[in-house]
Amino acid sequence: MSAPTTTGRTGHARAWRDRLRGGELGSLPVLLSLAAIWIIFVSLDEKFLSPRNLSNLSVDIVGTGLIAVGVVFVLLLGEIDLSVGSVSGLAAAAFAVLNVRHGLPEGLAVLIAVILGMAVGAVHGFFFATFGVPAFVVTLAGLLGWNGLMLYILGSSGTINLDDEGLVAMLTGYYFTDVAVAYGIAALGVAGYVLVSVRDAARRRAAGVPSRTPAEIGVRTGALALVAFAAAFVLNRFQGLPLALLLFIAVLVGLDHVLRRTTYGRMIFALGGGVEAARRAGLGVVGIRLSVFMVSGTMAALGGLFLASRVTSASQASGGGNLLMNAIAAAVIGGTSLFGGRGRVWSALLGVLVIQSIASGVALLGIQAAVQFMITGGVLLVAVVIDALSRRAQKAHGRV
What we know:
It contains 16 helices and four strands. It is an all-alpha fold. It has a two-stranded antiparallel ribbon with strand order 1-4. Residues 1-9 have low confidence and may be disordered.
């Protein structure tokens, strides 16, 4: 009678150690990298951890981070989406044209722009899932084609300025100045985590499988509370909780639930683990692939609207530059495997934090942007090497 209880108390910790030895490092490498980056930059310039800089950082990560979330879904299948930058620019341009030039209400224009991103993703998924055209080729064609369409609908003017006080501008321009909001959200998040963790542990103990001990739940809760309330304190010292950050966290929580706690999410992981095995298990491979690219297109459109909000305009440069590389790098640096079947939506948050922290630190120090690219490239290379070594270790332990 005591065996299940013992398993519940010690089995989870033992399983965690076994996963580390077997190459399943999770978010540990990126957390260590982020800590090192912050320590280096704050030692060079104490303004790096100033409330103003951290508040700006929390808003700057949102646009690219949302796009990276969609990339995570595609990477879980072991595929790639090279069109997300162009799709984000197309969505921003479509919104600007509909709202500014044609007078469509902002809410309706936003909805159409998001649906456009979803439709574009459906097109990519259709050719990939139905005809077997490699995702790399399909989305590369999309990168070129949707960028051309964006330039076409923007017309000769090239730039459309948005209403500084409109709905889209508020996405990154609005802050909850009441200090109670930030602390309340932090408390709500910690309480929600405790409830979910306790419920999951009880279910796992009832099933006789390893579960987190109360002590481990307490440690994790304490760490989350420390981060959440420290963030609330810092943000309240500047302008308060940014609406953009709140929406980003809400999206991450929602999609994390979809991936980890729904049948659909489990099917995505199963398909990423092996297409033929998933097909033999009776999974709808075509439908899952199609839906994942629709998610990617939708998140690219949302990210494009937040990026347009940040500069209150849509232009020929929208979706260009290093946006595509940053979105993919954020997902990979955050811990999503390039080989498919392993990753979380929180990878997007961690990865984009690393990338934007480097950009912020370089800007504060007045260093050339070229140095930022070199540092980010080095971090990405390390992340890919860790991913490859991790997969090799898993194979050696029979986990792949």
